[in-house]
Amino acid sequence: MAFLEIKQLHKRFGGLHAVKDVSFQVEPGQIKAVIGPNGAGKTTLFNMISGTFPATSGSVTFQGRELLGKKPFQVATLGMARTYQNIKMFSGMTALENVMVGRHVQSNAGFLASMFRMPRTWKEERDIRDKSMELLGLLEIEEHAHIDAASLAFGQQRAVELARALAMEPTLLLLDEPAAGLNIYETAEVGRLITKIRDLGITVLLVEHDMSLVMDISDEIVVLCFGEKIAEDVPTAIQQDPEVIKIYLGEE
Ligand SMILES: Nc1ncnc2c1ncn2[C@@H]1O[C@H](COP(=O)(O)OP(=O)(O)OP(=O)(O)O)[C@@H](O)[C@H]1O
Ligand SMILES: [Mg+2]
Questions:
Q1: pLDDT for 119
Q2: Residues 250 and 175 in one domain
């Protein structure tokens, strides 16, 4: 049984087939990347996996459980967290508070239970704060814990976003363009942080345009083009794949 298995996954928006019968697997402990030109269907694929919107057909099984038909919070409860293509910091909140939000989501897994125990105990609140602080430490931004998250540099905001996703205690992390908008130094930093997360035993599936990052950190790469999977292999093989070279460099 694969850790995450995507089978014949298909998404149609009216007449547009955004994702066409895509199948691949993710093994535990891997960093797997999905690449492809703009509009290839990468985010659509993530949206179906995380329950953001329904698939037209196909299946997604996570540790043997079918995910299609589940709501995003149900998918999250099973151990999958995600970040979004555009940084979404809650402004007016510190870096620490942003991470604590992710932790509250996790601890709300037993939503009814916590409702009957209201108000949340002081100890619970302190545990959430401690754990969130620990995650900021892991992502090497604890000195910015009490700064308004929206005023941090993009690279630091990205680290806060990763900490917030980790606060949900995922076993699988979906990252949609973690290096978008970052300079080359910040990109290298984020790459190092993603590797650090993988080394904790968390499996990573990422969409990314930055080829140097993808080639550096991925164990395997899936290439999408106009919704179809055109290649799947290790980075060195993908770099030499004639069809992949053609779509990235054009026909000339
Ligand atoms: N909600 C939607 N309704 C209609 N069409 C959509 C919707 N979401 C995406 N699409 C279309 O589906 C196709 C795939 O889009 P998607 O956002 O998945 O691409 P992508 O590979 O993530 O691109 P990028 O690299 O630019 O982020 C595009 O043609 C897009 O316009
Ligand atoms: Mg996208």
A1: 56
A2: yes
